[in-house]
Amino acid sequence: MTTEYVIHPIPLIVLETDMPKMTHLQNYGQKVDTMIYTWYIEGGPKKVCVDTGGSVEILTYRGFPGGKTIQTLEEGLAKWGVKPEDIDIVLFTHLHHDHIALAPQFKKARFIAQKAELEEAPKWNDYPLYKGAFPEDMINAVKIETVEGDSTIVDGIDVMLTPGHTVGTQSVAINTSKGKAIIYGACSVLANFEPDEASKRKGMTVVPPAIHLNIVDAYDSQVRVKEKADIVIPVHEPSFRNVATIPE
Fold it and tell me: Domains in the chain, start-ordered, CATH in brackets?
Protein backbone atom coordinates (compact mmCIF):
# COMPACT_ATOMS: atom_id res chain seq x y z
CA MET A 1 0.00 0.00 0.00
CA THR A 2 1.40 3.38 -1.00
CA THR A 3 2.27 5.70 1.87
CA GLU A 4 -0.15 8.59 2.42
CA TYR A 5 1.20 11.97 3.44
CA VAL A 6 0.00 15.36 4.58
CA ILE A 7 1.60 18.63 3.52
CA HIS A 8 2.19 21.54 5.87
CA PRO A 9 2.58 24.93 4.16
CA ILE A 10 5.11 26.98 6.11
CA PRO A 11 4.88 30.61 4.98
CA LEU A 12 8.03 32.63 5.59
CA ILE A 13 7.60 35.86 3.63
CA VAL A 14 4.75 37.80 2.03
CA LEU A 15 5.41 40.15 -0.88
CA GLU A 16 2.79 42.15 -2.78
CA THR A 17 3.29 42.07 -6.53
CA ASP A 18 1.46 42.91 -9.75
CA MET A 19 -0.79 40.06 -10.83
CA PRO A 20 0.43 40.16 -14.49
CA LYS A 21 3.85 39.07 -13.22
CA MET A 22 2.17 35.83 -12.22
CA THR A 23 -0.45 35.43 -14.97
CA HIS A 24 0.96 36.13 -18.44
CA LEU A 25 -0.99 38.93 -20.19
CA GLN A 26 -3.93 38.74 -17.77
CA ASN A 27 -5.29 40.56 -14.72
CA TYR A 28 -3.80 43.98 -15.45
CA GLY A 29 -4.22 46.49 -12.65
CA GLN A 30 -4.59 43.82 -10.00
CA LYS A 31 -2.27 43.12 -7.09
CA VAL A 32 -1.64 39.82 -5.36
CA ASP A 33 0.16 38.82 -2.18
CA THR A 34 2.69 36.19 -3.12
CA MET A 35 4.15 33.93 -0.49
CA ILE A 36 7.52 32.31 -0.04
CA TYR A 37 7.14 28.93 1.58
CA THR A 38 8.87 25.81 2.57
CA TRP A 39 6.55 22.80 2.45
CA TYR A 40 6.94 20.09 5.07
CA ILE A 41 5.71 16.65 3.96
CA GLU A 42 4.81 14.42 6.87
CA GLY A 43 3.77 10.80 7.04
CA GLY A 44 6.59 8.54 5.91
CA PRO A 45 9.84 7.29 7.40
CA LYS A 46 11.72 10.23 5.85
CA LYS A 47 11.15 13.87 6.74
CA VAL A 48 10.85 15.79 3.49
CA CYS A 49 10.68 19.48 2.60
CA VAL A 50 10.02 21.11 -0.74
CA ASP A 51 12.15 24.25 -1.17
CA THR A 52 13.83 26.07 1.69
CA GLY A 53 12.61 29.64 1.28
CA GLY A 54 14.63 32.80 1.62
CA SER A 55 14.77 36.02 3.60
CA VAL A 56 13.55 39.59 3.22
CA GLU A 57 17.16 40.79 3.17
CA ILE A 58 18.02 38.49 0.27
CA LEU A 59 14.85 39.45 -1.62
CA THR A 60 15.65 43.14 -1.26
CA TYR A 61 19.26 42.62 -2.34
CA ARG A 62 18.07 40.69 -5.39
CA GLY A 63 15.73 43.50 -6.44
CA PHE A 64 12.43 42.54 -4.80
CA PRO A 65 11.87 45.09 -2.00
CA GLY A 66 8.82 45.27 0.23
CA GLY A 67 8.74 41.72 1.56
CA LYS A 68 7.63 41.13 5.14
CA THR A 69 8.72 38.28 7.36
CA ILE A 70 5.90 36.10 8.67
CA GLN A 71 8.03 33.70 10.70
CA THR A 72 11.45 32.17 10.65
CA LEU A 73 12.13 28.76 9.20
CA GLU A 74 12.78 27.41 12.70
CA GLU A 75 9.50 28.82 14.03
CA GLY A 76 7.50 27.37 11.16
CA LEU A 77 8.93 23.87 11.40
CA ALA A 78 8.72 23.87 15.20
CA LYS A 79 4.92 23.90 14.94
CA TRP A 80 5.25 20.35 13.64
CA GLY A 81 7.88 19.26 16.13
CA VAL A 82 10.87 19.35 13.80
CA LYS A 83 13.96 21.46 13.23
CA PRO A 84 15.74 22.20 9.94
CA GLU A 85 18.50 19.78 10.94
CA ASP A 86 15.90 16.99 11.33
CA ILE A 87 14.94 17.05 7.64
CA ASP A 88 16.20 14.10 5.59
CA ILE A 89 15.41 15.27 2.05
CA VAL A 90 14.91 18.67 0.43
CA LEU A 91 13.44 18.78 -3.06
CA PHE A 92 14.25 21.99 -4.95
CA THR A 93 11.53 22.98 -7.42
CA HIS A 94 14.14 25.19 -9.10
CA LEU A 95 17.26 27.15 -8.20
CA HIS A 96 16.04 30.73 -7.81
CA HIS A 97 17.17 32.43 -4.60
CA ASP A 98 13.75 32.45 -2.93
CA HIS A 99 13.64 28.65 -3.16
CA ILE A 100 17.18 27.76 -2.05
CA ALA A 101 18.63 30.52 0.12
CA LEU A 102 18.08 28.83 3.48
CA ALA A 103 19.42 25.43 2.38
CA PRO A 104 22.50 25.52 4.66
CA GLN A 105 20.19 25.37 7.68
CA PHE A 106 19.16 21.84 6.65
CA LYS A 107 22.41 20.40 7.87
CA LYS A 108 21.88 16.68 7.27
CA ALA A 109 19.48 16.75 4.31
CA ARG A 110 19.98 15.35 0.85
CA PHE A 111 19.23 18.07 -1.70
CA ILE A 112 17.68 16.99 -4.98
CA ALA A 113 17.12 18.97 -8.19
CA GLN A 114 16.76 18.15 -11.86
CA LYS A 115 20.01 17.57 -13.72
CA ALA A 116 19.04 20.13 -16.36
CA GLU A 117 18.41 22.72 -13.67
CA LEU A 118 21.77 22.30 -11.99
CA GLU A 119 23.74 22.16 -15.24
CA GLU A 120 21.87 24.55 -17.52
CA ALA A 121 19.96 27.11 -15.46
CA PRO A 122 22.98 29.03 -14.09
CA LYS A 123 24.13 29.71 -17.65
CA TRP A 124 21.24 32.17 -17.92
CA ASN A 125 23.02 34.41 -15.42
CA ASP A 126 24.97 35.80 -18.38
CA TYR A 127 21.80 36.91 -20.19
CA PRO A 128 20.70 40.45 -19.24
CA LEU A 129 17.06 39.54 -18.58
CA TYR A 130 18.08 36.95 -15.99
CA LYS A 131 21.28 38.42 -14.58
CA GLY A 132 21.86 36.89 -11.17
CA ALA A 133 18.63 34.89 -11.21
CA PHE A 134 20.49 31.70 -10.28
CA PRO A 135 22.87 32.75 -7.48
CA GLU A 136 25.88 30.50 -7.78
CA ASP A 137 27.02 31.18 -4.22
CA MET A 138 23.74 29.74 -2.92
CA ILE A 139 23.74 26.85 -5.38
CA ASN A 140 27.27 25.92 -4.34
CA ALA A 141 26.54 26.26 -0.61
CA VAL A 142 25.19 22.70 -0.45
CA LYS A 143 25.80 19.48 -2.33
CA ILE A 144 22.95 18.90 -4.78
CA GLU A 145 22.09 15.48 -6.12
CA THR A 146 20.29 15.26 -9.46
CA VAL A 147 17.57 13.23 -11.10
CA GLU A 148 16.64 13.21 -14.79
CA GLY A 149 12.98 13.60 -15.59
CA ASP A 150 10.12 12.05 -13.67
CA SER A 151 11.47 10.09 -10.72
CA THR A 152 10.32 8.42 -7.52
CA ILE A 153 12.06 9.88 -4.47
CA VAL A 154 10.47 7.72 -1.77
CA ASP A 155 7.30 5.67 -1.71
CA GLY A 156 4.41 8.04 -2.43
CA ILE A 157 6.54 11.06 -3.38
CA ASP A 158 7.57 11.61 -7.00
CA VAL A 159 9.05 14.51 -8.91
CA MET A 160 7.86 15.56 -12.34
CA LEU A 161 9.99 17.48 -14.82
CA THR A 162 7.89 20.56 -15.60
CA PRO A 163 10.15 22.98 -17.52
CA GLY A 164 9.30 26.45 -18.74
CA HIS A 165 9.75 28.73 -15.76
CA THR A 166 13.34 27.47 -15.78
CA VAL A 167 14.93 24.73 -17.87
CA GLY A 168 14.72 22.21 -15.06
CA THR A 169 11.74 23.22 -12.97
CA GLN A 170 10.27 20.21 -11.23
CA SER A 171 6.98 19.69 -9.45
CA VAL A 172 6.41 17.32 -6.54
CA ALA A 173 3.59 14.76 -6.61
CA ILE A 174 2.52 13.52 -3.19
CA ASN A 175 0.11 10.70 -2.39
CA THR A 176 -2.55 11.81 0.11
CA SER A 177 -5.80 10.46 1.51
CA LYS A 178 -7.64 12.61 -1.06
CA GLY A 179 -5.60 11.74 -4.10
CA LYS A 180 -2.49 13.15 -5.68
CA ALA A 181 -1.40 16.60 -4.51
CA ILE A 182 1.11 18.30 -6.79
CA ILE A 183 3.24 21.22 -5.68
CA TYR A 184 3.65 23.05 -8.98
CA GLY A 185 7.20 24.34 -9.08
CA ALA A 186 6.84 27.37 -11.35
CA CYS A 187 6.30 30.96 -10.15
CA SER A 188 2.53 30.63 -9.84
CA VAL A 189 -0.67 31.14 -7.87
CA LEU A 190 -4.08 29.50 -8.21
CA ALA A 191 -5.09 32.16 -10.74
CA ASN A 192 -2.67 30.49 -13.15
CA PHE A 193 -5.13 27.62 -13.28
CA GLU A 194 -8.15 29.87 -13.88
CA PRO A 195 -8.01 31.36 -17.42
CA ASP A 196 -10.31 34.25 -18.27
CA GLU A 197 -13.18 33.88 -20.74
CA ALA A 198 -11.17 35.15 -23.71
CA SER A 199 -8.46 32.60 -23.01
CA LYS A 200 -11.02 29.82 -22.63
CA ARG A 201 -12.44 30.67 -26.06
CA LYS A 202 -8.98 30.09 -27.49
CA GLY A 203 -8.88 26.70 -25.83
CA MET A 204 -6.52 27.63 -22.99
CA THR A 205 -7.04 25.61 -19.84
CA VAL A 206 -4.31 27.34 -17.80
CA VAL A 207 -2.47 30.68 -17.75
CA PRO A 208 1.31 30.29 -17.88
CA PRO A 209 3.49 32.32 -15.52
CA ALA A 210 4.79 35.63 -16.81
CA ILE A 211 8.31 34.83 -15.63
CA HIS A 212 9.58 32.06 -17.86
CA LEU A 213 12.44 30.93 -20.06
CA ASN A 214 10.13 29.11 -22.48
CA ILE A 215 6.44 29.96 -22.43
CA VAL A 216 5.40 26.99 -24.59
CA ASP A 217 7.11 24.56 -22.23
CA ALA A 218 5.60 26.42 -19.28
CA TYR A 219 2.08 26.09 -20.68
CA ASP A 220 2.47 22.40 -21.54
CA SER A 221 3.96 21.63 -18.12
CA GLN A 222 1.14 23.36 -16.35
CA VAL A 223 -1.50 21.52 -18.37
CA ARG A 224 0.18 18.26 -17.41
CA VAL A 225 0.09 19.17 -13.72
CA LYS A 226 -3.57 20.16 -13.91
CA GLU A 227 -4.49 16.88 -15.60
CA LYS A 228 -2.64 14.70 -13.10
CA ALA A 229 -3.41 16.51 -9.85
CA ASP A 230 -6.37 16.01 -7.57
CA ILE A 231 -5.03 18.92 -5.50
CA VAL A 232 -2.95 21.66 -7.17
CA ILE A 233 -0.56 23.60 -4.94
CA PRO A 234 1.12 26.54 -6.74
CA VAL A 235 4.31 27.45 -4.88
CA HIS A 236 3.47 31.13 -4.28
CA GLU A 237 -0.30 30.88 -3.70
CA PRO A 238 -1.32 33.19 -0.81
CA SER A 239 -4.41 31.26 0.33
CA PHE A 240 -2.26 28.54 1.88
CA ARG A 241 -0.86 31.04 4.37
CA ASN A 242 -3.54 30.14 6.91
CA VAL A 243 -3.85 26.46 6.00
CA ALA A 244 -2.23 24.11 8.49
CA THR A 245 -2.47 20.87 6.57
CA ILE A 246 -3.23 19.73 3.01
CA PRO A 247 -5.56 17.93 2.63
CA GLU A 248 -7.55 19.47 5.46
Answer: 6-241 (3.60.15.10)
pLDDT digits (tens, 9 = 90+) for 11-35: 999 999 999 999 998 999 999 999 9
Distance between CA atoms of 193 and 197, rounded to whole angstroms? 13
pTM for the complete prediction?
0.96
Query: Please, are residues 108 and 88 in contact by the beta-carbon 8 Å criterion?
Result: yes
Q: Is the peptide bond before 247 cis (omega within 30 degrees of 0)?
A: yes
Quote the CA–CA distance of 2 and 156 in Å, as a whole number: 6
Among 69, 92, 68, which Cα is nearest to 162's? 92
Give 31-56 pLDDT, tens digit per residue: 999 999 999 999 999 999 999 999 89
Of 2, 4, 103, 116, nearest in space to 49 by CA: 103
